[in-house]
Amino acid sequence: MADTQRRGRRIMMTGGELDAFLAEQRTCRVATVSGDGAPHVGALWFAWDGTALWLYSLTRSKRWAQLRKDPRLAVLVDDGDAYGELRGVELTGRAEFVGEAPRTGEPCPELDAPERLFAQKYFGAAALPHDGRHAWLRLLPDTVVSWDFRKIPG
């Protein structure tokens, strides 16, 4: 067990590595829980602002309905094909609903930065087009676990 813990510390990402990784990755997997305890996992695009993970979700999705009843969620962002290339981040906590739902573009200063990040990352644009079907979820993670197997010697 002690050896596993030491190895975990050696391969975890630094704060800068974690920020860079989350800025470059495009898709995450979001896990929610239904009322009967059944898990639901779906892929989403996201933005990371250095503190919070921002998810732009359909408001008529199973995910949205489940988070309304139970805001607990886990998010996984990972990359790599071969064992020695694997790296990733798992973030867990509670979803917070931010702005109007669905989002139509009403002024919301809290969303200025994440919408700018999201628009640049996915659309190469300065402003996010609002479709009246999506809305924002913010995850201020309670736990963050990261790994980068490229740090394993030899």
Mean pLDDT, nearest integer?
Answer: 93
* Proportion of residues in β-strands: 35-45%
CATH architecture descriptor name: Roll
CATH topology: Pnp Oxidase, Chain A
Order of helices and strands: HHEEEHEEHEE
Number of domains: 1
Number of distinct helices: 4
* Helix/strand structural class: alpha+beta
Task: Give the strand tally.
Answer: 7
Structure at a glance:
By secondary structure, the protein is an alpha+beta fold. The protein has helices at 2-11, 15-24, 62-69, 109-123; strands spanning 27-33, 39-48, 53-58, 72-79, 87-98, 134-139, 143-148. 28% of the residues lie in helices and 36% in strands.
Describe this protein's structure.
A hairpin with a 5-residue loop joins strand 1 (27-33) and strand 2 (39-48). By secondary structure, this protein is α+β, with helices and mostly antiparallel strands. It has one domain: Electron Transport, Fmn-binding Protein, Chain A (Pnp Oxidase, Chain A). It is 28% helix and 36% strand.
